[in-house]
Amino acid sequence: DTLAAAMPSNENKAAEHGRDNAVSPPQGTAVDSPDDLVSASTVAEDFASDKVGDGMPELGYNPTNESLDRVRVDSNGQALTTNQGVRVADNQNSLKAGLRGPTLMEDFILREKITHFDHERIPERVVHARGSAAHGYFEAYEALDDLTVAAPFAAPGKRTPVFVRFSTVAGERGSTDTARDVRGFAVKFYTDEGNWDLVGNNIPVFFIQDAMKFPDLIHAVKPEPHHGMPQAASAHDTFWDFVSLMPESAHMLMWAMSDRAIPRSYRMMQGFGVHTFRLINARGEAHFVKFHWTPKAGTHSLVWDEAVKISGADSDFHRRDLWEAIEAGNYPEWELSLQVFTEEQAEQWSFDILDATKLVPEELVPLRPVGRMVLTRNPDNFFAETEQVAFCTAHIIPGIDFTNDPLLAGRIHSYVDTQITRLGGPNFHEIPINAPVTQIHNNQRDGLHRQAIPRGRVSYEPNSLGGGCPFQAGASGFVSYPKAIQGEALRGKPERFAEHYNQARLFWNSQSEAEQNHIVGAYRFELTRVQTPAVRQRVLALLARVDATLAQRVADGLGMDVPAPLPDFAPGSHIGAGVQGSVQPPEVTQSPALSLMARPGDGALNGRRVALLVHQGVDGAAVRAVHTAVLQAGGVPRLIGHRLGDVQPASGDPMQVEVTLETAPGALWDAVVLPDESADRPNLSISGQAVSFVQDLYRHCKPILVLGHSSALLAATGAPGSAEEGGGDPGLFFMDAGGKGSVDADVMSTFITAVGQHRPFERETDPPLV
Ligand code: HDE
After folding, report:
1. DSSP-based three-state secondary structure for 770
2. Bridge partner list, 292
3. Residues at CB less than 6 angstroms from ligand 1
4. CA 20 to CA 219: how far, in whole Å?
5. What pLDDT score does 52 carry?
6. Pfam families, from UniProt (predicted)?
């Protein structure tokens, strides 16, 4: 089918897409050199940086693949073997004493197979169990000599291979992708100075200030221990009980109840290092830094009703989206920016930069773009790569160092520790996906699953028998920043940690109207699920301290009165006044950068999915024209009908229905194109399935293009504006194509632009009209 053949595909994996220029790996061996993999120069041209010119490794090729090649297996044309490499003659029948007799102990082949199977599972991650990952590279725009000696920033155009894993936090390994949750954004840089893991989230702050509270937080949000419900959801009593007793979570809760917690795609969310880190330059000077990843495709989200429906229709929604984009050669991209500031600046601020519940407003410290990250290759094997990858906040390299953030301290301990259980021993760094591209030399020895075979008789230092090797690197190795430490050992918090509401309010004040509506809706949904009235009450008291309107609107949704605000214990507040110092007023009370709308992205369709509804007698020429336009704009057009197979348009060749209304309901699409259908010759408009398909797209504020002046199908949904020319709805487009085969280029391009801009929220009402 010509329409299908026009779909883009990943040049790195041409063979898997049946392309002519495919380079298939030689049978039974590993994939060969990078040169063979990059078939056409098109990849190189498309992805050469406009900022830095030619990059270092082969473009479109990920150098980590090279180190993984030694373990990559391709069984094409090969006979089945045991784990000892013995060819297996019969893989159907166990060895028996007579055909109806007992199975023999002697059957080593059966026993090996079953034994291995019995041990196939490993423990899932305690948090962030559900995730999806991809390979790619980071490319520096410029040398950051003034700030850091960190290897990825050593030269303009320098490329460092990365492996990136996105995740939800609360759900189990098989849970749904579109749960309301924080998303993990973990990047492993395989630098030439060793591995650096930047283990961040898509939200720049956290629920708690001190690692001491992390197990409590996670116990509260995970399924309740007596009955194991609910899965992958914060909408239950124990979560809200805990956070309402921990007012420091007020700020993060605002983010978690916002559309940030239901991203449209992993490709359309920001990433943040969250903690303040340090950058160290060659002179040993330190600057504070916050890390920001900004998606080229912009920051875009789902709406809640849609997220819930997607959960049912495709619980792998984000995993599939990431996979398909990369397979299609539509490589996701982020820009890395830094917020760099000094200790003196930080001293002046009303908040403490060691407090992970606070962000540094961009109005105080603007973002400095320093490079970009592109994901170019899907893993070959989910378990070997995505499941076994071990991110650790303790993995830093020369040029980067920690701060005293008390949350970070706990993490530096936790990540290595948890891998030892999850991956079965202290040698998880030897698993190929975790191994640095630099050779490891030290005197650590043995342990479960050891791979390396260290030579010689020396495994201690100092030694003379090994010529003193491996030797200490001195100044060319990792030197901890000599930060001054003073004071007594005590349990407590610094003064500025006591203020919890200014930035929650800042966030609320910085949201667009639609985003504020969604926040209210999210609190209402979650608290309606909460069964204990006193917990609802306490959350309202917390919200009352953040913003009176917000609290009132949520209370209205719950049929409750707004209680007195929670007491504020911050020094200088009405209760704490005169007790101990005082808290300054916030520097910034509105920050447009905190709205998702602030980063609309490049406006391209970026793999957004456009449904073209078809039936017998449809205007084929118009459908084909829209298909082409969507494809050219970087979208994914698919023909949808009641049943798979051919439909005969009014004129021209038959067209193939690729997806059915039943298997891919409306919530899965970013926009829809409705065929010209008049009331006197009804087709899809008399199908309840088609009507609810379009209703969902309407309700979720997605662009709708009607081929023709009006549509019986749209009218059947009861949507306002379904009459001719849309009645002012900015997301409804009517295109005169009426069988003439010509399309209105202006309407087409406004429709495409609207899809790239994501959602016209003007249509939204609460409750929804349709
Ligand atoms: Fe994690 N976290 N975390 N976390 N975290 C884990 O490590 C932990 C925190 C984050 O894709 C675990 O390998 C503690 C903040 C991501 O594999 C575990 C504390 C941020 C991932 C762990 C935090 C994160 C994890 C579970 C508070 C954003 C997934 C499995 C002191 C900056 C990485 C594992 C991947 C995973 C502990 C708080 C991000 C148990 C103790 C803050 C993205 O070690």
Report:
1. coil
2. 272, 337
3. 125-128, 131, 165, 167, 184, 186, 199-201, 206, 211, 214, 274, 356, 390-391, 407, 410-411, 414-415, 418-419
4. 53
5. 32
6. Catalase (PF00199), Catalase-rel (PF06628), Catalase_C (PF18011)
Q: Which of 128, 354, 413 to mutate to test the pocket of ligand 1 (most atoms within 8 A of CB)?
A: 128
- Expressed in angstroms and rounded, the spacing between residue 127 Cα and the centre of ligand 1 is 7
To which residue do tokens 């995505």 refer?
Answer: 386
Q: Whose CA is closest to atom 41 on ligand 1?
A: 411
For ligand 1, atom 38, the nearest C-alpha belongs to 411
Q: Which atom of ligand 1 approaches the CA of 131 most closely?
A: 11
Domains of the chain are 10-78 (no CATH), 131-430 (2.40.180.10), 498-598 (1.20.1370.20), 609-763 (3.40.50.880)
Give 371's contacts (C-beta < 8 A, 6+ positions apart).
138, 139, 140, 141, 152, 153, 335, 336
Closest CA relative to residue 624, chosen from 570, 691, 552, 675: 675
Name the residues annotated as catalytic. Answer: 128, 201
256-282 confidence digits (pLDDT tens): 999 999 999 999 999 999 999 999 999
Average pLDDT over residues 19-33: 43
Give the distance (Å) from ligand 1 centre to CA of residue 411: 7
The 3-state DSSP composition of the chain as helix, strand, coil percent (nearest 5) reads: 30, 15, 50
Question: HSE (CB half, 13 Å, CA atoms) of 35?
Answer: 0
Q: For residue 542, how many C-alpha atoms fall within 13 Å in the half-sphere facing its CB?
A: 26
| CA-atom Rg of the chain in angstroms | 29
| Ligand 1 atom nearest to 184, measured from its CA | 43
pLDDT per position as a tens digit, 127-150: 999 999 999 999 999 999 999 999
User: Helix axis angle, 304-313 relative to 513-529, nearest 10°?
Assistant: 60
pLDDT average, residue stretch 345-372: 98
% of the chain exceeding 90 in pLDDT: 82
Q: What is the pLDDT of residues 421-432, one digit of tens each?
A: 999 999 999 999
Q: Which two tokens stand for residue 337?
A: 């920016």
Alpha-carbon distances, residue 731 vs 68, 306, 735 (angstroms): 47, 17, 13
Cβ-based neighbours of 607, under 8 Å, separated by 6 or more: 265, 267, 321, 324, 325, 328, 330, 634, 635, 636
As a dihedral over the C-alpha atoms of residue 535, residue 541, residue 547, residue 549, rounded to 10 degrees, the angle is: 80
Calculate how far, in angstroms, residue 214's C-alpha sits from the geometric centre of ligand 1: 10
Give the distance (Å) from ligand 1 centre to CA of residue 230: 21
The token duo for 586 is 């916030």
CA distances, 482 to each of 400, 401, 402, 473, 485 (Å):
13, 10, 11, 18, 9
